[in-house]
TrEMBL record:
One of its GO terms (molecular function) is methyltransferase activity. InterPro entries: Methyltranfer_dom, SAM-dependent_MTases_sf, UbiE/COQ5_MeTrFase. This is Dimethylmenaquinone methyltransferase. The keyword Transferase applies. Keywords: Methyltransferase, Transferase. CDD domains: AdoMet_MTases (cd02440). SUPFAM superfamilies: S-adenosyl-L-methionine-dependent methyltransferases. The keyword Methyltransferase applies. Residues 13-126 form the Methyltransferase domain. PANTHER family: METHYLTRANSFERASE (PTHR43591). One of its GO terms (biological process) is methylation.
Length: 167
């Protein structure tokens, strides 16, 4: 597992942001990001599998998470997201992007719902069986018109951060 603090820092997640987690799964990082954006921020946790969202619901009922009130669970598809254009300050995905059936369509959707100058953050790490090289992730993001902002990490784990241009 990767340190949530390291992923939050590398991703550019800041207090007050309205962020979308694409492929939240059981919420391994969701509660950490919810605390990082604080009471003025919001996290929209998107997953195509309702059972994953149920696991986050259960996690949020635990005493240690009772203070978290800024997570919205969304059952939906990354290829056809139920959000308006230019909604989010930041979109992040942790070891999920390579599992999406149509990565180019997913990137187009992410670009659509991300605000201009918004951040797209893709984190990958081994031993994920779908692990892509940094160069693969960078090429995919830039081919859809995102501007590479930075890649942090090592061969074993990294976060590629992109910016949505104004056009």
């Amino acid at each position: 597992m990767q340190s949530p603090d390291k992923i939050i820092s590398r991703s550019g997640i800041k207090e007050g942001m309205k962020a979308l987690e694409v492929g939240c799964g059981s919420g391994a990082f969701t509660t950490f990001v919810a605390r990082a954006v604080g009471d003025k921020g919001e996290i929209f946790a998107l997953d195509i599998q309702p059972k994953m969202l149920k696991q986050i619901e259960t996690k949020l009922k635990r005493p240690e998470n009772k203070d978290i009130k800024n997570i919205h669970l969304i059952n939906g598809d990354a290829l056809n997201m139920p959000f308006e254009d230019n909604t989010f300050d930041l979109i992040y995905s942790i070891t999920v992007f390579q599992e999406l059936p149509d990565k180019n369509k997913a990137l187009k959707e992410m670009k659509r719902v991300l605000k201009p100058d918004g951040i797209l953050s893709i984190t990958e790490f081994l031993p994920d069986p779908d692990y892509p090289l940094k160069s693969t992730t960078v090429k995919m993001g830039t081919s859809e018109g995102f501007i590479l902002n930075d890649v942090e990490g090592s061969f074993w784990n990294y976060t590629a951060r992109f910016i949505k241009p104004h056009n």
